[in-house]
Structure formats: C-alpha cells, structure tokens
Amino acid sequence: MTTYRRVLVLGGARSGKSRLALQLAESTSAERTYIATAQAFDDEMRERISLHRRERDTSWQTFDAPLELSAAIRDLTVPGKAVLVDCLTLWLSNIVMAKRDSEQEGDRLVRSIREARGPLILVSNEVGQGIVPPTPLGRSFRDAQGRLNQRVAEACEAVVFVAAGCPILLKPAPALQLRLE
User: Fold this and answer.
1) 15 pairs with which residues across the strands?
2) Cα atoms in the Cβ-side hemisphere of radius 13 Å centred on 116
3) Which one from 40, 49, 52, 151 is the annotated catalytic residue?
C-alpha cells in the first residue's frame, strides 16, 4: 500500500469530497486537526458550519483560518497528526472579498503545503466544469480557483477527484503512452 503525505481532494458541490477527506484523515491518525475556512455571514452558512461540526467526533480539534491559512498549516502540521483543510474554495473567496492579492496568497499557501511537517489533506471545489459565470467577478474567481487548484495539485503527492461519492485517483496517474501514426 502506498501512502502519501499531502493529498488534494477535488469535487463539485455535494460530491462527497469532504466525507472522503474525513475518512482519509481518520484512517491516517488518531490525532486530527480540522482547519475550517468558512465564515458565517448568514443563517444558512451558520447551519452548514454546524452540520460540518456535527460530522466530526470529539477526537477532532478545530481551528478557524478564514484568511491566515498558510500560517495555520505551518503551525498545525506535525508528524503523526493528520490535518484536514476544508476548503480552499471558501478560503480563496475570503481572500478575494478581503481584496488581498490571490496570487501572492496562493504562493504562501503552496509554500506552506510543501513545507508541511505532517499528513495534510486539502479539500477544494472543481469549478471549471460548469457553465461560464455571467459576471466578470464570477469568471475571475473561477479562473483564480482553477489556477490555485493546479498549483496545489502540483504540490501534493496525490490528487483524488470525487463525483457522486466515488473517488477517482488522478495523481499519481499511470503514464500515458500515445502512438502517433
């Protein structure tokens, strides 16, 4: 069995990506930390956050890092303790809404992922498979999320895509061989 220290779990909304990430973390270590990036600006989001908290048992420590995710990863990853970040899409949204430079923040994030001292699982939405957003902000965000996902995937040893609750291993992938005639 091959093990990986850094894993990115991608998928669409309600694909089962968070559930898979929880299972991965729970199978990795008895000590687990959940880094939450969501901010509760309304009742519906407060309920979503509450639901996510109820999905985790008392063996989880939870830390909120809506903006300072890189520092949280640096501070909280240690050998033998699984850290789960859920999710990069909400984090990037927070960065954009705070008018921070998403490329610079992405640089910091990727550096912290590469330097993680223990098992790290990151959850992110795959936003590039849907319709083209109708607004410039929506298109800009979709593009920034796509670039961030690519950079994080490159920094991770494994990438899993989840669709309809089914995980598909994207990385490492078997070498493709094309025969050109």
Assistant:
1) none
2) 29
3) 52
Q: Which residue has the tokens 């291993």?
A: 169
- Model confidence over 96-148: pLDDT tens digits? 999 999 999 999 999 999 999 999 999 999 998 878 889 998 999 999 999 99
Nearest C-alpha neighbor of 135 from the set 96, 104, 95 = 96
Give the count of beta carbons closer than 10 Å to the beta carbon of residue 72: 21
CATH class of domain segment(s) 6-171: alpha beta
Which of 43, 85, 38 has its CA nearest to residue 60?
Answer: 85
Q: Report whether 170 contacts 150 (CB < 8 A).
A: no
28 an active-site residue? Answer: no
Any idea what the Cα angle at residue 110 is, between residues 106 and 114, rounded to 5°?
A: 170
**DSSP H helices in the chain:** 17-28, 43-55, 69-76, 88-97, 102-114, 136-155
Q: What's the predicted TM-score (pTM) here?
A: 0.92
